[in-house]
């Protein structure tokens, strides 16, 4: 079993040149039997990228066109020292996962046909585009990944994506929140990290065990982020209790149309509030509990004014919980007191 560990400086590309010397001009020939041939293998390619035990024969010109990092590297003066070769083609080792590098290169070569604007992308492809697009400064590929990340973030907040795609349900599972936390933490995606941590809080044993990817690599939270999740659960319980205690009073002061029988609307909202939680609903998921309450409250007959007041309350409380997430996870400069530090 392989374990995936993040580099302390994930934004800095890591390249390993084999057999390089500042004084010798020697070429070492490596057998192709040493590496598996990847999906991207161009017979006329002039550079071979090796990630793990997988090799990809591609073109320097294509890499340079799409990636500022590769462009700068290939134009470095005096970078004419011979390295290890396969079939006479120089090779370059990179520190990426083979599956992610394959996705990244495929997006370079296939362009618009790689992804239709209206179609969803599988989660692992989205992550690959964001991670390597950032690392290699291929901004258009990074942005492609970020555009397709929204449905997955919406799922973590218990919202339905505006345009559900078949690939979403085929590739998404709750443990993907672990990957999102590591991605956001390593690339400093501050808007994503609180939402991803919230998703991890809903996991059971997998919050410790991690997620196993399709290439058999197991990915886990860092100790710091695991601690953030476990500590934040207390604050999520408090947030849920606060919202559920407030719902009964959200229409108490409104100008109810049933002025002569105001208790009717109040009694209905109180009945919904006091209904037991659905089986399996954890107490540290206030957004889901609030959404369930709204679904239940929408099904009962309230007067027009009370219905409007309740909807306004629901939207405001939902936004309040989301806005409070950075403090709950100690991600803000003012969160020390909030977290009891």
Automatic annotation (TrEMBL):
Q: Which CDD domains match?
A: BTB_POZ_ZBTB_KLHL-like (cd18186)
List residues of the BTB domain.
Answer: 45-111
Q: Which Pfam families match?
A: BTB (PF00651)
What the entry lists under InterPro entries is as follows: BTB/POZ_dom, SKP1/BTB/POZ_sf
Position of the signal peptide? none
Highest rank taxon of the organism: Eukaryota
Stated name of the protein: BTB domain-containing protein
The organism of origin for this protein: Somion occarium
């Amino acid at each position: 079993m392989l374990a995936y560990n993040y580099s302390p400086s994930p934004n800095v590309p890591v390249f390993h040149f084999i057999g390089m010397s500042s004084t010798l001009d020697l070429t070492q020939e490596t057998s192709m039997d040493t590496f598996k041939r990847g999906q991207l293998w161009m017979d006329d390619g002039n550079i071979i990228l090796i990630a793990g035990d997988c090799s990809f024969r591609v073109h320097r010109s294509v890499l340079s066109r799409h990636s500022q990092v590769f462009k700068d590297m290939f134009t470095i003066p005096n970078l004419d020292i011979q390295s290890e070769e396969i079939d006479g083609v120089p090779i370059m080792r990179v520190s990426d996962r083979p599956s992610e590098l394959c996705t990244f290169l495929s997006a370079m070569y296939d362009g618009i046909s790689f992804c239709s604007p209206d179609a969803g992308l599988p989660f692992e492809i989205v992550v690959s585009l964001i991670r390597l697009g950032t690392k290699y400064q291929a901004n258009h590929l990074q942005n492609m990944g970020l555009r397709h990340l929204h449905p997955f973030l919406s799922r973590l907040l218990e919202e339905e994506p505006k345009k559900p795609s078949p690939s979403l349900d085929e590739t998404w599972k709750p443990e993907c929140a672990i990957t999102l936390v590591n991605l956001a933490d390593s690339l400093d995606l501050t808007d994503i990290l609180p939402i991803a941590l919230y998703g991890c809080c809903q996991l059971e044993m997998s919050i410790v065990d991690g997620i196993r990817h399709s290439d058999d690599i197991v990915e886990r939270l860092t100790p710091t982020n695991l601690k953030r999740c476990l500590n934040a659960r207390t604050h999520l319980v408090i947030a849920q209790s606060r919202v559920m205690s407030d719902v009964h009073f959200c229409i108490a002061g409104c100008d109810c149309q049933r002025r002569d029988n105001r208790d009717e609307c109040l009694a209905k909202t109180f009945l919904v509030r006091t209904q037991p939680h659905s089986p399996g609903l954890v107490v540290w998921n206030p957004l889901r509990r609030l959404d369930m309450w709204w679904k239940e409250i929408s099904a009962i007959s309230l007067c027009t004014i009370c219905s409007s007041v309740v909807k306004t309350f629901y939207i405001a409380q939902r936004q309040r919980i989301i806005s409070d997430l950075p403090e709950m996870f100690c991600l803000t400069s003012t969160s020390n007191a909030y977290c009891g530090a």
